[in-house]
Amino acid sequence: MAATHIYVCTTCKLADEAGLETHERAGARLHRALSARAGERSASVQIIPVECLSVCKRACTISFAAPGKWTYVYGDLPADTGADVILDGASLYAATSDGLIPWKQRPEALKRGVISRVPPLARPSEIQS
User: What architecture (CATH level 2) is domain 4-126?
Assistant: First the structure.
């Protein structure tokens, strides 16, 4: 089984962090928490920091992705307490063949925080001219 990638926007900052450039941003805190918890929970999850997922109004933002699966983008996640919920969602995502997590099975924070889903990349042989 291919690893589930969790992309974490490390530049996300909460509204109350505006102007606090010396303060660690919420996205960086979330990345740190996810990295620490992921090693304890699953070897099949890779936590990947990214500088921006362009969802600045919905901090903190993450994305689940894996080869051949739909990609999900979620926002409004709690920086300091969201790691376990995100990893629970990643486990559900990993258990699917296509990345589509049934709505009723999603943790509440992922139901409220869904921003988009993107279809898997098509193989060149699947593209119709």
Answer: 3-Layer(aba) Sandwich (3.40)
